[in-house]
Design brief:
This protein folds into two domains: about 110 residues, NAD(P)-binding Rossmann-like Domain (Rossmann fold); about 140 residues, Dihydrodipicolinate Reductase, domain 2 (2-Layer Sandwich). It is globular, with a radius of gyration of 19 Å. About 45% of the residues are buried. It contains nine helices and twelve strands. It is about 35% helix and about 25% strand.
Length: about 300
Amino acid sequence: MYGIGIVGLGTMGRRLADSIGANPAFTIVAAYDPAATDAVIPMAGSVAELVGNPAVGCVYVATPPLTHEGIVRAVANAGKALLCEKPLAASPESARACVDAVARAGIPAAVNFPFATAPAAVRLKELVDTGALGDNLSAHLTLRFRQWPREWQQGAASWLAGPEQGGFTREVVSHFAFLALRLFGPGRLTECTVERGPMGTETRVHAVLRFASATMTIDAAVDGDQDEFNRFEVKGSRSSAVMSEWYRLTHESGDIAPVRADARQIAELALLLDGRPNRLATFEEAAQVVSLIEEILRS
């Protein structure tokens, strides 16, 4: 059984803590979050205390992006395994520093991109890899938000609403950039326009990215009265497949109903810690996502 320490008990930290606690391969040893007042998990007094706990063999980092590099360095220096929330960082330089830290330490490390294991995303990759969609692939991502941050994120609005580490491009587009990298290979930005609101955070993004085997367009905006809308369509010469509602897949070969991937992520984490092959996003993949996202935001 692996002992887990959690840094950050916001929405994601608590959500994944439930899946960790439900997996018999893990036990939650302690958590650290100075803002948490109602946690039932034993609380450490600092990140250093948590990381230094000999019962903690793996640390899950669920804090805002600007804090990731320092915590990643501390975990790597302690030789502990690591699962970090996305985005890995808020700059390519910081992301690369995280990659280097875990590589030097030689620790098992991954980033929590749920599309790595979500049934809809896994099936979509099968459709692409087997040629079921045909040739001349293209992808189109449409995102709409009634407000940003979303209503359920208001507890984290202090950082999600600002341009330094927040915005929907880092928080949401990054998921689909990761998926596109998994589906189509390395990518680069070829076209982009960004509109920003009074806070400096993006309100509308139009971008074109060229990957090794497909071109992807992004049409994202804070607009309309629907709380959230997301649709990712991949078209080929034979057929098309659509992911929507995050985890729903529609294709002529059969549909997949939406199902969250948290439990699957933790099951794959157990494989990583066992030294076995797994589907989790690597730090290198996550750094590639950061490079694409930050290039969009520099436009």
